[in-house]
Amino acid sequence: MTDHFPPDSSFAHGGGPFLPEAAAIVPLRGAKGGAVSVDAEGEIEELTPDEALKRIANEPVMLVHAGFTVRRIARGRNFREPGPQVFDLMELFAFVHPAKPCLPTATGLARALGLDAGSTPEDQALMLHRAAAQMLSTLQHPAFPDRPSAARTAYRMAEGGWSWGPGVVAALRDALGREGKPPGSRGFDIWNELPEWEERAPRPPAGSLPVSESEAGERLALLAGPDAEERPGQAAFARLAAHAFAPRETAGAPNIVLAEAGTGIGKTIGYIAPASLWAERNKGTVWISTYTKNLQRQLDQELTRLYPDPAEKAEKAVIRKGRENYLCLLNFAEMADRAAIGGGAVAIGLVARWAKASRDGDMVGGDFPAWLAARLSGITGRTGLTDRRGECVYTACPYYKKCFIERAIRKARRGGGVVANHALVMRQAALDQAVGPIAQTAPKNTETAAGAEDEEPSGREARARFVFDEGHHIFDAADSAFSASLSALETAELRRWIDRKSVV
Q1: Host domain of residue 43
Q2: How many Å apart are CA 494 and CA 504, to the nearest integer?
Q3: Residue of 52, 284, 287, 331 with fewest CB within 10 Å of its CB?
Q4: Is 348 helix (H, G, I), strand (E, B) or coil?
Q5: What number is the average pLDDT over the span 341-351?
C-alpha cells in the first residue's frame, strides 16, 4: 500500500488512529468574513478570506462539506475548487457511518457523532480534530461492521487519490489479509455482497372486516401517545376516515370518503389510524398516495410510531417510488469500471458504502446524502446512476435478483402500508383494472420472465384500498402519469440500443 503514498504523507501516527497533520478551518460569522484555523497542536489563528482561500489551496486542511465551505469563505472572490489535499470530514463520516443522517455543517457533524460543538468557531474547529480521531478509531474497533468490505473499498478509494485514504486503510489494514490489498478488482463490487430477493407465493385476497369509529379513535390515541394534546378535529377526521374501510355495499362499487381538514389538524395520523387497523385485521395492504416527497418523508416518520421496531417497520411499511429514484446496479457497475481506470473513485466508493447500508437504495429523498450528489456531478451526476430513460433490461440484467427496485416491488406486495406518489399509484391502478380480478396461481419463474414484474400486477385485489393525500394535485399527476415524452435524448438512446456500433 505504501507504493501509492509518498513517505511525506500528511499523516502522523501517534499510537492511536492515523491522523492528518492538517489544520481545521471553520468560517467566521458576520459581515467581515474570513475563517478560524486550529492546527493539530491546538494553536488558533484568525484568517482573512484571502488568507483562508490561499491556505485551502496550498496546504492540507480539514473542512466540513469542502465545496460549500470554500464558497462561503470566498463570498464572490475567485477561488480554486478544493483539491486532493483537503480532508473533508463529511466524506469520512459517509464512509464510517453510511446512510446515517448528518447535516453537512460542523454543528450537524458534532450532533451526529455525539460531540460538543461549542458555541464559537474556535470551539468548532477544535471539535473537528476530535471528530476525525473518533471516526478513525471507530474503524479500528474489531466490532466495526463488515471491516473486510470497508477495507477493500477504502483501498480502491486511496488508489484514486482520496485524502483520507492512508488513515482509513491504516485503521483497517488487518482486515485486508496477508496481501495487504484486495484481490483483483475487488473494492466497488457491492453486487457480490447484497442479498438476493426471494419470490414468494401471492397473498390470498384481503378480508373485508370493518373498522368502527371507536376503534379508529382508540388506534389514534395509541399512535399519538399518552402525552399528546387533545385534538377534537383530528379525532373526528379519524372517525370519518374509518368509513372508507367498510365492506362494499354494492359489488364493483368502491366506498369513497372525501374529507378536508385545515392545516395543523393532524390529518396524517388521522387516516393512518384506521388504515393500519384495517391492514392488520384483514391481512391486506393500504396504498397511501402523495404528491410531494416531503409528505412521503413525513409519512415515513409517522409510520415509525406504528412500527417502532426497525425490523418490523422494514417488513410492514414500504416506500415505493418510480424507477428513476433508485440506484441501478448495472449503471453503478459501469461507473465503477470507469472509476477503476481513472477518475471518480472517491465518489463511487462513497456510493458503494451507502448502497450496502441503505434501507432501500433510494437516491432521491431516501437516505442518500444530498451533499454527495454534488460530488457525483463531476462524473455522471446522480441521474446517471438511476434508470431515468427506461433503459432497464429487467431479467436480462446480471444484477436482477439483487435489484433495489425489484426488491421494493416485492416488499410492497406483502406490506401492510405502502407509501407512493400519485403517478405511480394511478399507473398501477390502471394496470390492475386492465388485468382484472386476482388469480390464485403459483408465482412465475422470474429467472425467465421477459419483463418487469411490476408490469404484470397480480390483479385488482392486489391494490384495493387507497388513501389519496394532497388530493388537489391528482389531476396534475394524472396528466404526467398518462403522457409520453420524445426528445433528442430518447431518440439518441434508441439509436444506441438498435445499433451498438453507433457512437452518440
Answers
A1: 2-145
A2: 11
A3: 331
A4: helix
A5: 86
| Domain-located, residue 188 | no
What pTM value is reported for the model?
A: 0.84
- Residue 442 falls inside a structural domain: no
Q: Total structural domains in the chain?
A: 1
> Which amino acid appears at position 339 of this protein?
A
Distances (CA, A) of 134 to 123, 138, 208, 402, 411: 16, 6, 54, 34, 37
Please report how many Cα atoms fall inside a 13 Å half-sphere around the Cα of residue 499, on the Cβ side. 7
Per the domain annotation, does 363 fall within a domain?
A: no
pLDDT in tens, 144-180: 999 999 999 999 999 999 999 999 999 999 898 777 7
Residue pLDDT, tens place only, 36-88: 999 988 999 999 999 999 999 999 999 999 989 999 998 877 777 777 789 99
In sequence order, the β-bridge partners of residue 62 are 24, 87
Can you give the CATH number for the domain in which 127 is found?
Answer: 3.30.420
- CB-side neighbour CA atoms (13 Å) of 37: 20
Q: Residue 11: which of 141, 176, 169 has the closest Cα?
A: 169
Burial of 146: CB neighbours in 10 Å, binned 0-12, 13-18, 19+: middle
Residue 87's nearest CA partner among 171, 10, 173 is 10
How many Cα atoms occupy the beta-carbon half-sphere of 132 within 13 Å?
Answer: 28
**Highest-confidence segment of 18-27, 109-118, 408-417, 427-436:** 109-118
Buried b (16+ CB within 10 A) or exposed e, 322-352: bbebbbbbbbbbebbeebbeeebbbbbbbbb
Is 362 strand, coil or helix? strand
Q: Is residue 472 part of a domain?
A: no
Read off the pLDDT of residues 83-137 as tens digits, 9 standing for 90 and up: 778 999 999 999 999 999 999 999 999 999 999 999 999 999 999 999 999 999 9
